[in-house]
Every structure is written in C-alpha cells, then in structure tokens.
Amino acid sequence: MNSESRPEVLISSNEIAATVDRLAAEIRRDYLGKDPLLLGILKGSFMFMADLIRLLDFPLEVEFVRLSSYGRGTESSGKMNVVQGLRSTVKGRDVLVVEDIVDTGLTVAYLMEYLSKKRPALLKLCALLDKPSRRRVPVSIDYIGITVPDKFLVGYGLDCDEKYRNLPDVCILEGE
Ligand code: PRP
User: Is residue 170 part of a domain?
Assistant: First the structure.
C-alpha cells in the first residue's frame, strides 16, 4: 500500500468467504421466493454485498443508501449524514439491510427506524461484523457474521480516511 505498512490481519479472506457462505445459507432459508430487496449501506458494504448476492441463487433486487457518520476521522460524530437516499419502494417489500459492521449501532438504528416507517412486509438486518462492546443504542441483528474486538478495523470495504477498503482481509489498524 504505497509507503504505508500493511496492517495486521484479524479475519482472513478465507474466513470471510466461509462466513459469507454461512450467512447466504441462512438468508436463503428466509428469503427464497420472496423477490427481496437487499439494501446495502455505502460505502462500507459494497464488497460484502457483491460477495453475498453471488451466493443467493434466486431473484432479488439490490439497492444502496449512503449514510455516513464518521466524516474523515475515526470516531463516530453520532450525527447521521444521508449522502444518497433510497430510490426503491419499500412498502410491502421483503427487505434485507446489508451492513459491513455494526459499531455504535447509530447507523443501522437510524436506517431500520426510517425503513420500518415505510411499512415493509419483512425487515431484517445482516451484518458481517459486530462490535458489541461499542454499542450506544440497542440493535437487533438477524444474521451476524463475526463478533470483533474493540479495535479499529479496515479492509474488505472498511476504511480509514478512505484508504484500505481494497484489502481482501479485515485488518487491525494500530494507533487509531
Ligand atoms: C461505517 C460502517 C458502518 C458504520 C458503523 O460507515 O461502514 O456503516 O460506520 O458504525 P456505527 O454502528 O457506529 O454507526 P462510515 O460512516 O464510516 O461510512 P462508510 O461506510 O462510507 O465508510
């Protein structure tokens, strides 16, 4: 990564792939035949979404919203910023929110409440990574990939100041 040292691997690409496999099987059981709307939260979820939907062998739609709370720093500002809003109709749909990581919970809590007001038929949440030690608001995650420690994580879509999203593994960024 140019002059930057490569951060320590916490979850290897192989372990991520096995986790995405398991999550896809769980989601398939609940959403098969429902023509669901999979709603990813940008930017962090783009890689997870791409891998997940390749394993879901039934008709579905993909949509993204872009929410941001961190700005350029490493601490959540706690204030949600809707950068790109929802274009699809949610009312009556079977919706699955796809998130890379639930940290304080502020991002998904905000989105789940926003979506539930639009009266979907089914609304569930899938998160590849869960960092419960940092939770500031309660969040119910229906499909959890891996519980992670309170470290600043990058890679597989997760960034620090927009860098490291392209790493194939989830890594710990020391000193953040
Ligand atoms: C990150 C991550 C989650 C959110 C989780 O997004 O991708 O969406 O923070 O944190 P929370 O549970 O404390 O709300 P970020 O706001 O950094 O935007 P990005 O996805 O564009 O990197």
Answer: no
> Is residue 118 situated within a structural domain?
yes
Q: What is the distance in A from the centroid of ligand 1 to the CA of 33?
A: 30
Q: CATH code at 113?
A: 3.40.50.2020
Marked catalytic residue, from 94, 100, 103, 130:
103
Catalytic residue flag (residue 94): no
Q: Across the chain, what does the average pLDDT equal?
A: 91
Q: What is the mean pLDDT of residues 137-150?
A: 97
Per-residue confidence (pLDDT) for residue 67, from 0 to 100: 80
As for how many domains the chain has, the answer is: 1
Q: How crowded is residue 97: how many other Cβ atoms within 10 Å of its Cβ?
A: 23
- The domain in which residue 123 lies consists of 13-151
Residue 155 CA neighbour count, 13 Å, CB half: 20
Check pocket membership of 155 for ligand 1, CB cut-off 6 A: no
Asked whether residue 126 is assigned to any structural domain, the reply reads yes
Q: Are 67 and 39 in contact (CB under 8 A)?
A: no
Q: What is the pLDDT of residues 58-93, one digit of tens each?
A: 999 999 998 866 555 555 556 676 667 787 789 999
With a 6 Å cutoff on the Cβ, whether 68 touches ligand 1 is yes
Kindly state whether residue 159 falls inside one of the protein's structural domains. no
